[in-house]
Amino acid sequence: MAEAHQAVAFQFTVTPEGVDFRLSREALKHIYLSGINSWKKRLIRIKNGILRGVYPGSPTSWLVVVMTTLGSSYCNVDISMGLVCFIQRWLPEGCGPYRTPQTRTLLSMAVFSTGVWMAGILFFRQTLKLLLSYHGWLFEMHGQTSRFTKVWAYLESVQHLLGDEEYNRMETLAKEFQEKTAPRLQKYLVLKSWWATNYVSDWWEEYVYLRGRTPLMVNSNYYVMDLVLVKNTDVQAARLGNIVHAMIMYRRKLDREEIKPVMALGIVPMCSYQMERMFNTTRIPGKDTDVLRHLTDSRHVAVYHKGRFFKLWLYEGSRLLEPRDLEMQFQRILDDPSPPQPGEERLAALTAGGRVEWARVRQAFFGSGKNKAALDAIERAAFFVALDEESHRYDPEDEASLSLYGKALLHGSCYNRWFDKSFTLIAFKNGQLGLNTEHAWADAPIIGHLWEFVLGTDSFDLGYSETGHCLGKPNPVLAPPQRLQWDIPEQCQAVIESSYQVAKALADDVELYCFQFLPFGKGLIKKCRTSPDAFVQIALQLAYFRDRGKFCLTYEASMTRMFREGRTETVRSCTCESTAFVQAMVQGRHLKADLQDLFRKAAEKHQNACRLAMTGAGIDRHLFCLYVVSKFLGVSSPFLAEVLSEPWRLSTSQTAQFQIRMFDPNKYPNHLGAGGGFGPVANDGYGVSYMIAGENTMFFHVSSKFSSSETNAQRFGNHIRQALLDIADLFQVPKADS
């Protein structure tokens, strides 16, 4: 077989005369090219490491300082104030390279110049650090607000959700915690902040994500949609050829540190640490806790199609395969008629079921032989690719099409996604794509950054032929993708089936309602003189009250990437001000001017909460870390126990967009993704993801559970629509026909 010859560098046979080696010239050539490619990567990393080490200096700036020192010397001006002569006296005399006075003088000037250069670097670094640590600019145009302690800020956030008796009880617990327990716990957090890069993120990753024992599918993983208003090609393999090529181009830029940081409000760079584990990363199950395994490189992807697993090489030697070559390889998989091996078809259901069961079966049946080799090929892949046999695409004339598309991305058939991989690239039969992303390694804006680059490169750089195929000619002599071989015993197959049933019950219970809101977008919201995010969040409060007749604790994720290795903080969107506005709206007895005033107060409170969260002054992550310390110390805190057990019945998130300016949205208004979504956090709650997708439209993804008699995703979605329209009417914002 062709792939067997590609896999070995030499063969040998034992003869009476000894061992006869038969070297494969082609294989050795590929090994040589791979080595060259690896050394190129090492040299690039060394170069980047040096440049990082002297930032914000550079070799050019060092040369400028040296030339300035030399020039002043020739002009008989001693800018060193005698330091050059002092250094010269300390140099050894009479031998080696220091024999002549001219050499000693030049060397002394070089040493002095290097010292001045390094001192300048340290000065500018400290100055830059102070500037980036200043977050007052977020508040300046809106005015500073008084800052409560985290505990009393928490009480303010729940006061309107509790009765008087319950609030008084919580106030007593909070006061006791603040006076007795908190000071001791806080000392440990301060100590950690001195020692660790970030005092929150490692514990957040471990205790919120990796120690979770429930299925990743629906409960943790989230999905991302393709461009929904334009179509590049209907050819499934061709679309994958361009997209996979673009993804590896992005990975190459990432390895070479050529990706510019995202700027907060266009002013301050945000930490890019989470991008490091985007590729070559797999979540490995454990009985008590999972582990994220990240490799420095991977030269293949794992592919699933019709119950079979394949290993597809991305390189020929050191050369990245062109899109047309990748298209040919994916088409070979699509054309492969071989059936699945026993137990292979639903194998990935293990990653969709309980983590403990997966850890046990992995240890028992995948630790050696064929199964270990095949599992390694999946877990060591750059990412996972799923070739689906069904078609999905958003049809504006058929609203249900977007929800069906979202359901397919969220869980699929429960066994055609590898939920442990950092992300699964999903390709439907009609060329439409999407992602299913594991959450522990990074948050949604990180994968969104990759997705914007990939979709922009696919649409504007790579392109397709008139027949919908990738440009160029394929190389037919490439070895075909390799079928992974399994030996799955009946006992293991029984566990696979059990995991599948658990996952299927979970998937069948998810109600997902996705819709495009057409009457207006952020353009007209700004005429209300408020932020689009605050506008939507207040509309969600109005919609929830109309849906359930009460308010609930509401979670909105906010980035904290202005801090090194920062991830997220919670914005508690249900505030006293927003509930006052909602109650006034529902009563229907207030003047429009009064309602406008209540809305603006609610919007200002929400915007200020977002600024506090972004600048590290939020509530929840701090209380979470205090809780972790209390568990380490064996300290019981009724206050922290209640805070950390409160259910988030409305969990919300805005999908970031236009992080990369690869094209002009005004020139290409239909090149819009629909964002993505996630499952409900509480069994009797809603999950709401939304994308304010430009000036004139928004997309919403609403999830709930059929098993809850209190929730209905479509009903809540309709309430969201109406709430947006009603708030717009307050400001007489003209709307397009809905």
Automatic annotation (TrEMBL):
Domain Choline/carnitine acyltransferase span(s) in chain numbering: 153-722
Key words of the record: Acyltransferase, Fatty acid metabolism, Lipid metabolism, Membrane, Mitochondrion, Mitochondrion outer membrane, Transferase, Transmembrane, Transmembrane helix, Transport
Sequence similarity: Belongs to the carnitine/choline acetyltransferase family.
Listed GO biological process terms: carnitine metabolic process; fatty acid beta-oxidation; long-chain fatty acid transport
The enzyme's E.C. designation: 2.3.1.21
Pathway, per record: Lipid metabolism; fatty acid beta-oxidation
Catalytic activity as recorded in UniProt: (R)-carnitine + hexadecanoyl-CoA = O-hexadecanoyl-(R)-carnitine + CoA
UniProt xrefs under InterPro entries: Carn_acyl_trans, CAT-like_dom_sf, Cho/carn_acyl_trans, Cho/carn_acyl_trans_2, CPT_N
PANTHER family cross-referenced by the UniProt entry: CARNITINE O-ACYLTRANSFERASE (PTHR22589), CARNITINE O-PALMITOYLTRANSFERASE 1, MUSCLE ISOFORM (PTHR22589:SF69)
Entry keyword annotation includes Acyltransferase: yes
Cellular component GO terms, alphabetical: mitochondrial outer membrane
Function, as annotated: Catalyzes the transfer of the acyl group of long-chain fatty acid-CoA conjugates onto carnitine, an essential step for the mitochondrial uptake of long-chain fatty acids and their subsequent beta-oxidation in the mitochondrion.
GO molecular function, one term: carnitine O-palmitoyltransferase activity
Signal peptide residue numbers: none
Compartments where found: Mitochondrion outer membrane
Protein name per its UniProtKB record: Carnitine O-palmitoyltransferase 1, muscle isoform
Keyword Acyltransferase listed: yes
Family matches, as Pfam families: Carn_acyltransf, CPT_N
TM spans (from-to): 106-124
Residues covered by the Carnitine O-palmitoyltransferase N-terminal domain: 1-47
Location (main, coarse): mitochondrion
Record membrane topology: Multi-pass membrane protein
Gene name per UniProt: CPT1B
Active site annotation, chain numbering: H439
